[in-house]
Amino acid sequence: QVQLVESGGGLVQAGGSLRLSCAASGRTSFTNTMGWFRQAPGKEREFVARISGSGSITSYADSVKGRFTISRDNSKNTLYLQMNSLAPEDTAVYFCALTSPYTQRYDYWGQGTQVTVSS
């Protein structure tokens, strides 16, 4: 059983910052690629950022590049997303995800944390 639990969401004004965390536990390797995704009301879930197992390789959606930073602390089995210069269009439920060492797909997902950016 693998559990991913996000925290750190909330309400923030435009231009503000939030830091999301994702704590992982359970029987699997937590040194695989992890990612953040988000889903806004009425829209499909979209990719935000990913980070390699070692943390040395990251990639971002164009919409967040330069504003968001993904990082991880493997000693704590925790994934982070630092979000700066937030805009109303960043409002969404944010999910963390972990790839399976067997399928290399995002097989494990958290329950999500709400981020609301007011204008």
Care to describe what's here?
Helices cover 0% and strands 54% of the residues. The protein is mostly beta strands. Strands 2, 4, 5, 6, 9, 10 and 11 form a seven-stranded mixed beta sheet that branches. Strand 5 and strand 6 form a beta hairpin. The model has no long low-confidence stretch (mean pLDDT 95).
What's the helix and strand layout?
Elements: E1 2-7, E2 10-13, E3 18-26, E4 34-39, E5 46-51, E6 58-60, E7 68-73, E8 78-83, E9 92-99, E10 106-109, E11 113-118
Parallel strand pairs: 2-11
Antiparallel strand pairs: 1-3, 3-8, 4-5, 4-9, 5-6, 7-8, 9-10, 9-11
The helix-and-strand class reads mainly beta
Sheet with the most strands, sense and barrel status: 7 strands, mixed
Q: Name the overall outline.
A: globular
Q: What would the average pLDDT be, to the nearest integer?
A: 95
Tally of DSSP β-strands? 11
In percent terms, what proportion of residues is strand?
Answer: over 45%
* Helical content (DSSP H or I, runs of 4+): under 10%
Name the helix and strand elements from N-terminus to C-terminus, one letter apiece: EEEEEEEEEEE
Low-confidence stretches: none
Tell me the Rg in angstroms: 14 Å
